[in-house]
Amino acid sequence: MSEPSIFTRILQGEIPGEIIAETENAFVLRDIAPQAPVHLLVIPKTQEYRNVVELAAGDPALLTELVGLAHTVAAEHSDGDFRLIFNTGPGAGQTVFHVHAHVLAGGLEEGRLGG
């Protein structure tokens, strides 16, 4: 069995973290190093999946739930417009190998990563 991820440890109350929303299967934290005025992490409670590709293959319903929760917290903490980013692999900037989505909103530069 693998060691609990930092997200699992926060969820279990072993280390501090600001949980701002929670469902039966997922929770949302404020990022400790925000890259935008609103920078939230949407995380499944299971650490079974290391990245979004594994999650999509193994539990598409949970992936759908994460996207819905991202939409909900974006609406609550900004104007509802947001970017949803899943880093997949160390070369893409993933540092915690417990799948999670970054919700970025508020004051994002026009045109940056546009498309």
The rough form would be described as: globular
Largest sheet: 5 strands, antiparallel
Structural class from helices and strands?
alpha+beta
Poorly predicted parts: none
Task: For the largest sheet, list the strands in their spatial order.
Answer: 1-2-3-5-4
The end-to-end distance, rounded to whole angstroms, is 41 Å
Calculate the mean pLDDT score and round it.
92
Describe the overall structure:
The chain has helices spanning 6-11, 52-58, 60-77, and strands spanning 19-22, 26-30, 38-44, 83-85, 101-105. It is an alpha+beta fold and 115 residues long. It has a domain at 1-34 and 52-80 and 99-106. α2 (52-58) crosses α3 (60-77).
At a glance:
The protein has 115 residues and is α+β, with helices and mostly antiparallel strands.
Topology:
Layout: H1 6-11, E1 19-22, E2 26-30, E3 38-44, H2 52-58, H3 60-77, E4 83-85, E5 101-105
Antiparallel strand pairs: 1-2, 2-3, 3-5, 4-5
Helix pairs in contact: 2-3
Provide the descriptors you would attach to this structure in a database record.
115 residues; alpha+beta; 5-stranded antiparallel β-sheet; globular; 27% helix
